[in-house]
Amino acid sequence: MDSNTGLDIDFIDDLTEGNLMFFDDNRIPSINLKRKTKILPDILGTGSAEFFVNDKVKEILELNITEQKINFSPIRIDKYNYWLLNIIGLLDCFDNEKSGYTTFENGNIDDVHNLKFKKEKIPEISIFRIKENTVRLFITEKLKNIFEEAGVTGVKYSDNMDLTMGI
Description:
Blueprint: H1 9-16, E1 30-31, E2 43-45, E3 51-53, H2 55-64, E4 69-77, E5 80-88, E6 100-103, E7 109-113, E8 127-130, E9 133-139, H3 141-150, E10 163-164
Parallel strand pairs: 1-4
Antiparallel strand pairs: 2-3, 3-5, 4-5, 6-7, 7-10, 8-9
């Protein structure tokens, strides 16, 4: 999906910082895809920060994510109904002692190589963002298994824990 969704950059920044976000009015925003396929996947991502899920994935998340707050805002993608996934809050689980990373001069994290989490701070079934990289979404192995059992499409799993966080 094209990274230019037409959503306001300040809205997206607040979304990735874990703030509860709603569209300003009661209208349902619409996004038209440039490259169309016959069947849209269950999860659409922009390659940036926005993630859109269909009713199937929304239901899976609502049934299984019990220790986190997630908000869904309706959105139309072409002629289909989707939901903008809004994960409320950032999970404080980055293990700075075990992760390899570099920092900018101001001390903010620049590049992470060999990301490690404090697993005791992550709910067993979870989808989350971390303050050290608010753009990426992470999920637990149990949620991955639930997605795979349900045949969820449009998601790519990666075991690579190297992240570049600079612009």
